[in-house]
Task: structure prediction
Amino acid sequence: LCQLANFLKIARNKYTTISVFFAYSKDAQSGLISILKKLQICKGNASIDVHILNKGIDDADKNSILAIDGLRCFFDDVTSYISKDADYYKFAIPQIASCDIAIYIDPKTSLEIDFNRLLTLELGDYYVGAYHDITFDGKPLSNYTEGVLGISHYLYVNDDCAVFNIRALKGNGAYDRFMLYDSFTSYSINPSEALFNLTFKDRILIIGDIESDTDDTGALAEIEEENSFLNKWNREKRAQDRVEVVNKIADFEKNGI
Result:
């Protein structure tokens, strides 16, 4: 709570309103309520807009969120943007956010987050700020990030907590890039996190280092067989579709988002 109080003190001096986004799911409700109550205790005079990304929410859960005084709560339906589960809701933030800076926190996260660091960031032209995940520095996970995703393990980040630079993201095609990668491929380990790294690749500011608890160890045997992430696209697609995808990726990599 002390760390969170310091975080909000910094925020009050830097921003008129602090916008914090969460992804709603039934199994994450208790974690969400816990974080919101901490925000309530520590916020002081800060004006906090809480955005609950959802595709439908139980009345009881909604009422328990609204019962927390002192927070302005908005329930943002992401159905028209995201077809998958709550782990992917964050990709709708650039489409729906009206603030300059948006903070995203996964209600299920077990990470020790340096809240102060989040709001002292100067993102500049970077699209997001996130934590480098040192869990992926060692083999075979580094083989996965570099061989399958084409991303150096030194630059691979965790997606449980991120700061979105909405000013830089607006109109720059980040959502389109997410949809492109998501349309033709799947990933063995932390699939939403893989998409996060691919979507914002080369435009991620590393906040610091964290160590996550990756539980997808059953997929490690597949890593050595995956020489590039292109081998993971949906194999039922027609050959001409594959050529089109390759050309689109080449264009993205050449011209940026």
Q: What stands out?
A: Confidence is low (pLDDT under 50) at residues 215-221, 223-242. Strands lie at 17-23, 47-54, 72-77, 101-105, 128-133, 157-165, 204-210.
